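quick one, 294 residues, struct below
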Amino acid sequence: MTFSKHEDFQNKGVLKLANVIDVDMVADVQSHLWQEVSHKFGIHLDEPSTWFSNAHNPVGDAGVKRLNAMGSIMRELKVSGKLDEIERAIQPVIDHVFGAHTWQPLDLWYSLLSFPGSESAWNVPHKSWHCDEPAVVGDAEPWSLFVFVFLDNVTADMGPTTVVSGSHRRAERLAKTLGTRNHEALINAFESVNSGLFENPEEVTLLPMDQVLEPLVQEDPWFQALVKEGSPDQRIQRFIAEGNSLHGIEQKVVTLTGAAGDIIVFDPRCLHTFSANVSALPRQVLRLDFKRQL
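---
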């Protein structure tokens, strides 16, 4: 059976689109980003000795380290117009896959720049799995789309975001039995992306983000094993190569990797987490969020 890209996204919650952005355009943004990082933090891409010269930043654990206070750099890049061409390249691709004028970008960009940790072998992560949006009963679409923009090649050993594809559908299924009402505060916290979607927020039945993982662990041995430590070979085979299926929903761990100029569209209701950067290179990825249009 052949699925359209939109259907594939609805099934998996993750969609990779290659060669969306011209590599010269990407290189220009990459250059400006590192100029700002160099100016603000004294960190230079081509001088690894500078990456950890400040004991307090970047921060993290043995798996991966990230720079604090990147928000101001991303806001400055947005205001300067350096990111406008990339947005103009992404928008028609989103329109083609999801339908014209159905999703529009927000003004806020995020940096997912991360540096190598001290771990020597990559493994499927077992901790910090979470969702970034609740599952709403009767609503098959997320409130927003996360679009990952690759400024350079990112391979599995470089600490990519790691996602359980199909887990948004498991969350939707759970919401039908475990979802509750009177979550106005939670809905209002997402006002930037869900404004106007609900006439009566107090009547919306949903499953909050922090109530998704535990029920899955309770009912599914595959998720029970996912949140426990294990050897890299066994975990990569079980969770990435093989995956699993339950209630007619296929699920598999997917690493968000790609080449410079690629984008990955990601449903924030999917369970995801960070993974270890065991390479000798920083991961250079930005994120732009899209809001669903009425």
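The chain has ten helices and 14 strands.
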